[in-house]
Amino acid sequence: MNSASLDEPSTVTVTSDDGARVTMHHDGAHVTSWIPSGTTEDRMFLSARSAFGRGASIRGGVPVIFPQFASEGPLPKHGFARTTRWSLRHVEQRHDGARVEMELRDDDITRAIWPHAFRALLALRVGGTTLDIGLTIDNTDSASFTFTAALHSYFRVRDAYRTDITGLSGTRYRDALQHRTEDTETNPSLAILGEIDRVYFDVAGPLAIREPERGLRIVQYGFRDVVVWNPGENGLRGKTDFEAGEERHMLCVESAAVQHPITLQPGEQWVGQQLVTAVPSGRET
Questions:
Q1: Which is it for strands 250-264 and 207-210: parallel, antiparallel or unpaired?
Q2: What pLDDT is recorded for position 284?
Q3: Do the beta carbons of residue 190 and residue 228 sit within 8 Å?
Q4: What distances in angstroms separate CA 272 from CA 4, 25, 87, 137, 201, one per listed residue?
Q5: Which residues are catalytic?
Q6: Which domains are assigned to the chain?
Q7: Distance between CA atoms of residues 161 and 232, nearest Å
């Protein structure tokens, strides 16, 4: 059964021995806050107008995208995992940080949308300046199934238009703002100058989100693609779950499996991981 008991708290907050802290919601197994050790600044963006609760799409944090990325298929946009209540499986305090695991299994509701038996596990570890998020998908069905997935991470930045991303040079991408045409990134760093919506394919190495006084280093495993998104001022128009001006304080850099959908045979397992580390300026790469 997917749903947590009615008297169970809607969020779980864990703090590592060194003071790093993360908050995770049962709804969507959704991380909404990450404060690295030694700082008081949250590195996750969360809109002041975000909705919460059963069935809501939380605007910010780390939505879990499964079993469909965006509208690239017949299912609801971004699938159902981000709007379904997960079960808390494990909380643990260890020498290398605090750990949380949440689980989602198929039920009558999910099978009505996507007719497959599965088990999804979101495992999170926080400690020091690192946030480690792993998504595991098990095929518990008697037939194969195919899916796409992503960790749709919204990172909080002080000024998106003074922020750039390294690690994408030489990578082919699809640009949603240019009629989904494809091109190759030729710039050594990608500056955020306004609205952007791209999927970068087969990203080989680590990425860095660089701000003038701080940065984030991102390493991914299992996920082959990276989505870069900022709605820009124009993109916020008509979105009721954003406040005006919030686009300047967020940047989505998502670990994703989009170009090559994943097929699992019965009994097979897939694991995708996003490892994010806060670093001082100048030490991002």
A1: unpaired
A2: 43
A3: yes
A4: 24, 20, 20, 9, 15
A5: 152, 254
A6: 11-280 (2.70.98.10)
A7: 10
